[in-house]
Amino acid sequence: MAAILAALDEAYPQAHCALDHRSPWELLVATILSAQCTDVRVNMVTPALFKRFPTPAAMAKASLPELEELIRTTGFFRNKAKSIQGAARTILAEFGGRVPQTLAELVTLPGAARKTANVVLGVCFGKAEGVVVDTHVFRIARRLGLAKTETVEKVEQELMSILPRDRWIGFSHQIIHHGRQVCEARKPKCNRCNLEQLCHSKDKTWQS
Question: Which residue in the list 51, 115, 148, 203 is annotated as catalytic?
Fold first, then answer.
């Protein structure tokens, strides 16, 4: 684990959240939109979305057809529109208009499961209550032998048990960058990977 963390620090010393945002509310919305969608696409959509509906109060009153049209290109736009508006209304009704700062409260918001909650807590509030496990983290944790289970929830628990808590937030950012740039799902670029000698995955494409 120490060797893997050292290699990640060497490769991605400045890794950070790739979703553009100016507040916890904007990151919450962007993370909900990022489900089954690239961060690049989300970052193309959110400027117009937040210009039209800049606050939870504005989003709570939005016309669903207009909201759906603004986020259409992110996919699953009808469900996402309902989730975003539902989250806005819950934040207004239950949390005084502010995004809550605990995992238990965040997961009560429509559209916000553990991954979304962990993203907001880690990036906006510096709180490590869990480890963000997206598709990249799930894939690479298993490739590196850090996790062996078959569900996102169980992989998160495995990572929490072996990662130092002060690395829970940064580890996910680094692994996500690694998944996009090197350790791709179909054809990992193992010849470019500084973790290659620490990896014993069966689908390696190159071995030193």
Answer: 115
